């Protein structure tokens, strides 16, 4: 895995050269853009018949076969909405999972969900979490059927998000390995198995969510990036890492308020990621205090730039989105810029999320026209 340059051109074209291509400019229905292809980081709101709206990690409103069918229908709607709103690289909107980490862990052996301990998550808030009681193993595919379904219902390039190894470790109590590094390595191996299966199911971009990279800087250096590369090892699909400041929930908002006027946390991980085998770095920018010039630290990588705020229900204007993208272009080449959201949009009312998708496409369209 020798960084961006050594990787297959065929794989890149899977994302940037689909069958239908808009020559330039605004959101042309049915066409995928090769320049500034838009995407979202992860979650979209779920329909109220599937789970309680505007709540994070809310329990399912259906059971059994009705739940299976409901998740599929919600996934279908998520794809339809992204397509209609001009999103180029579509995802499942995380309609089939309750929590971005726990749903994955539920499919593994070695973790006891009935034995719970209270731990401090990301050094920020206490949560009751399951316990690692033995060797962790992936007994069966986790998201592969869902990804195959997503592949069936869209011709667009598709992206799938998985939790990153360090963030998984940070969401559990470990009574077995008693070493965060060892457990991360086990998870990286498991994630790699899942990622390879997702790739075989036709996924073009595999994203690992590592919000922990903004918190545990020593571990990021010591083993975090290495574990992430292990999770991404040997993949033909493009690989992305998403590092953010989290959803707009109280614990996160209080943490952000303590970070001062300039959020420089990316300064710790970006130089390491720049030298890593990961293809795409996803960061938040819109309305955050991240100095734009930090993007320079991952020069050469593709940048999934957060141009949509997920902590405010105020919908950005296309011009605002365009302005954020223009400022980023001082630090990233246009052919490497992927306009995106800051993080997931699950807690929003559905209409707000949908309008934000439209604003993202329209803003990217403005800048595309300027570049053409
Ligand atoms: Zn995020």
TrEMBL record:
GO MF annotation terms: 5-methyltetrahydropteroyltriglutamate-homocysteine S-methyltransferase activity; zinc ion binding
GO biological process: methionine biosynthetic process
CDD domains to which the protein is assigned, alphabetical: CIMS_C_terminal_like
InterPro entries documented for this protein: Met_Synth_C/arc, Met_Synthase_cat, UROD/MetE-like_sf
Cofactor(s), names only, from the UniProt record: Zn(2+)
Keywords, sorted A to Z: Metal-binding, Zinc
Name of the protein in its database record: Methionine synthase (B12-independent)
Species annotation: Microbacterium lacticum
């Amino acid at each position: 895995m020798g960084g961006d340059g050594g990787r297959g051109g065929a794989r890149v074209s899977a994302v940037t050269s689909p069958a239908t291509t808009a020559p330039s400019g605004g959101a042309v229905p049915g066409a995928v853009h090769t320049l500034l292809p838009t995407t979202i980081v992860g979650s979209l709101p779920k329909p109220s018949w599937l789970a309680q709206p505007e709540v994070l990690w809310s329990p399912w409103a259906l059971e059994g076969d009705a739940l299976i069918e409901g998740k599929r229908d919600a996934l279908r709607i998520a794809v339809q909405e992204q397509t209609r709103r001009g999103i180029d690289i579509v995802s499942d909107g995380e309609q089939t999972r309750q929590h971005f980490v726990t749903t994955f862990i539920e499919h593994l052996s070695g973790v006891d969900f009935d034995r719970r301990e209270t731990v401090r998550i990301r050094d920020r808030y206490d949560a009751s979490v399951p316990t690692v009681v033995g060797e962790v193993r992936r007994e069966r595919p986790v998201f592969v059927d869902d990804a195959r379904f997503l592949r069936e219902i869209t011709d667009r390039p598709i992206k799938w998000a998985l939790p990153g190894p360090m963030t998984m470790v940070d969401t559990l109590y470990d009574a077995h390995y008693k070493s965060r590094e060892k457990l991360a390595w086990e998870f990286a191996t498991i994630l790699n198995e899942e990622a390879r299966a997702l790739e075989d199911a036709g996924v073009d971009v595999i994203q690992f969510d590592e919000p922990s990279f903004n918190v545990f800087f020593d571990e990021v250096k010591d083993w975090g990036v290495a574990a992430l590369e292990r999770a991404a090892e040997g993949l033909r699909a493009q690989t992305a890492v998403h590092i953010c400041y989290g959803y707009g929930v109280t614990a996160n908002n209080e943490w952000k308020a303590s970070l001062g006027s300039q959020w420089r946390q990316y300064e710790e991980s970006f130089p390491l990621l720049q030298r890593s085998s990961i293809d795409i770095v996803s960061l938040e920018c819109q309305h955050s205090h991240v100095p734009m010039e930090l993007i320079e630290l991952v020069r050469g990588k593709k940048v999934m730039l957060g141009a949509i705020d997920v902590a405010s229900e105020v919908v950005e204007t296309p011009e605002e989105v365009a302005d954020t993208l223009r400022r980023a272009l001082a630090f990233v080449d246009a052919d490497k810029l992927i306009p995106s959201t800051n993080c997931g949009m699950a807690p929003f009312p559905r209409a707000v999320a949908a309008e934000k998708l439209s604003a993202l496409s329209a803003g990217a369209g403005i800048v595309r026209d300027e570049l053409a």
